């Protein structure tokens, strides 16, 4: 085996890209993140990791709510914008058309193909650079144009992923094989 040590780094390739929404000082704010993942199926729960003292963090803690909005190829410029400029300096409330769901304080992006409305369940400080916000997904929203048989359709959503190695956004190449199926008759 001829492996090169890369050092301890957050090498997860690729990472999803989402826009997190929060009301900060009673105004909608959105930031782009790549540190995001599902942590429970039932109830449906998601984690987002935000660098400590992010502008958005105060709003999430105050309202106990946030949203996770899919980033797509059509939204790549706006997504990058929300990842460059802080709500502390610029007003990001007009970047997207905003709507609210049942929690009433988690701003969501109308132009995004998939929105997850979350109630804050826990904040974890692991002693490192980021704080982990765990949210219970109380509702998910999409539009008919992004659905097939009532379920979100990846081909229609056209999500983007983040490659930390090339610091670039990538699109997905297409379906490869059926999960829970293609390995059934595999002979190790
Ligand atoms: C591709 C990309 C991924 C990012 N991932 C994260 C992340 O996972 N966590 C984080 O705290 N910031 C991340 N950022 C940086 C924030 O989006 C950025 O600092 C933003 O301006 C913060 O917004 P706010 O100050 O309005 O809260 C990322 C930025 C980009 C462009």
Task: Describe the model.
The protein is mainly β and 188 residues long. The protein has a single domain, classed as Electron Transport, Fmn-binding Protein, Chain A (Pnp Oxidase, Chain A, Roll), CATH 2.30.110.10. 12% of the residues lie in helices and 40% in strands. It is globular. The two termini are 20 Å apart. The model has no long low-confidence stretch (mean pLDDT 98). Bound molecules: flavin mononucleotide. Flavin mononucleotide (FMN) binds next to strand 3, strand 5, helix 1 and helix 2.
Distance between the termini: 20 Å
Along the chain, the helix and strand elements come as EEEEEHEHEEEEEEHEE
The level 1 CATH classification is Mainly Beta
Give the amount of beta strand, in percent: 35-45%
Taking all residues together, what is the mean pLDDT? 98
| Largest pleated sheet | 7 strands, antiparallel
Helix content: 10-25%
**Major beta sheet, strand line-up:** 3-2-6-9-10-5-4
Low-pLDDT windows of residues: none
Compute the number of helices: 3
Ligands in the structure? flavin mononucleotide
How many domains would you count in the coordinates?
Answer: 1
CATH architectural label: Roll
Structural category:
mainly beta
Q: How would you sum up the global shape?
A: globular
In CATH, the homologous superfamily goes by the name Electron Transport, Fmn-binding Protein, Chain A
Rg, rounded, reads: 18 Å
> Could you name the CATH topology?
Pnp Oxidase, Chain A
Q: How many E-type strands?
A: 14
């Amino acid at each position: 085996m001829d492996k090169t040590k890369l050092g301890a780094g957050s090498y997860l390739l690729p990472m999803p890209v989402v826009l997190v929404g929060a009301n900060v000082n009673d105004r909608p704010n959105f930031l782009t993140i790549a540190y995001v993942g599902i942590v429970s199926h039932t109830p449906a729960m998601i984690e987002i990791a935000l660098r400590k003292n992010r502008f958005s963090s105060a709003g999430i803690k105050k309202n106990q709510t946030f949203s996770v909005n899919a980033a797509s190829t059509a939204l790549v410029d706006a997504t990058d914008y929300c990842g460059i400029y802080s709500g502390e300096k610029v007003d990001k409330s007009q970047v997207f058309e905003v709507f609210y769901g049942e929690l009433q304080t988690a701003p969501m992006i109308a132009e995004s193909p998939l929105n997850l409305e979350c109630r804050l369940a826990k904040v974890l400080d692991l002693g490192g650079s980021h704080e982990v916000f765990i949210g219970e997904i109380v509702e998910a929203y999409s539009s008919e144009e992004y659905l097939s048989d009532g379920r979100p359709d990846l081909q229609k959503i056209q999500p983007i992923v983040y490659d930390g190695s090339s610091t670039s956004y990538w699109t997905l190449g297409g379906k490869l094989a059926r999960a829970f199926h293609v390995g059934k008759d595999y002979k190790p």
